[in-house]
Design brief:
Layout (H helix, E strand, L loop, with lengths): L3 E6 L14 E2 L2 E2 H11 L5 E7 L5 H10 L2 E5 L4 H11 L4 E6 L7 H13 L6 E3 L13 E4 H10 L3 H5 L3 H4 L7 E3 L19 H13 L1
Parallel strand pairs: 1-4, 1-6, 4-5, 7-9
Antiparallel strand pairs: 2-3, 6-8, 7-8
């Protein structure tokens, strides 16, 4: 049985919408609401919040400690390194990447992608629901074996590859076996519906959804 580790990278120093992970959603932080939804999925294995060594992220560590969640602290800007080191620290064989700005993520979508990875009989190096995307933006799930993440961590040089964790992998289809999971309904809302948070308008929408439901 593979040791599966789901890494959620979170920091308070967001440039477009500062401190968005600590914004309030019905009495808890946005990060807490999001992790609660990730934990509803059946196949996520060990869930780790990977934050930075920046002192302002002490609060994220405190939130994790209060909730009894795993927390790893790593490089502030090299997200590939932080992701790799977090997976290494928790003994991962399979590594999942879910961003921290998707508080409406559907646990059923998470499970659908992870089931594809866990039940795959053919060789694969990277499975996601993003290339191309079909679900509304904000249901991002990426899975890769530890040796593939190690290759990216070792070889990636471009700033974009270090900052966004997985481009080194999915931009090399000639080297890595890439698989994609699409919405079974045949719909594509990836460019028309935003369930993620980057701007104040996104927060207003997400806050309204939480208050209504």
């Amino acid at each position: 049985m593979s040791q599966l580790t789901t890494v959620v990278q979170a920091r308070r120093g967001s440039s477009r919408l500062p401190d968005k992970v600590c914004m309030d959603l019905c009495g808890s932080t946005l990060l807490e609401r999001m992790v609660e939804r990730v934990l509803m999925a059946k196949h996520v294995g060990t869930v780790v919040v990977a934050t930075t060594t920046d002192p302002q992220d002490n609060l994220i560590q405190s939130i994790c400690e209060q909730r009894g969640w795993n927390c790893f602290r790593g490089h502030p800007t090299d997200l590939l390194d932080r992701h790799y080191q977090a997976a290494l620290a928790y003994g991962a064989d399979l590594v999942v990447k879910i961003p921290s700005d998707v508080p409406l993520i559907d646990p059923a979508v998470v499970d659908l992608v992870l089931e594809q990875a866990l039940n795959q009989t053919e060789k694969w190096d990277y499975i996601s629901n993003l290339h191309p995307g079909t679900w509304p933006d904000g249901n991002d799930v990426e899975v890769m074996p530890m040796d593939v993440l190690h290759a990216a961590w070792t070889e990636a040089r471009l700033p974009m590859e270090r900052e966004h964790t997985t481009p080194f992998i999915w931009e090399r289809p000639e080297r890595f076996v890439l698989k994609n999971v699409v919405w079974p309904l045949g719909l594509d809302y990836s460019m028309s519906h935003r369930f993620t948070i980057d701007y104040p308008e996104d927060y207003a929408f997400i806050k309204a959804v939480y208050e209504a439901l």
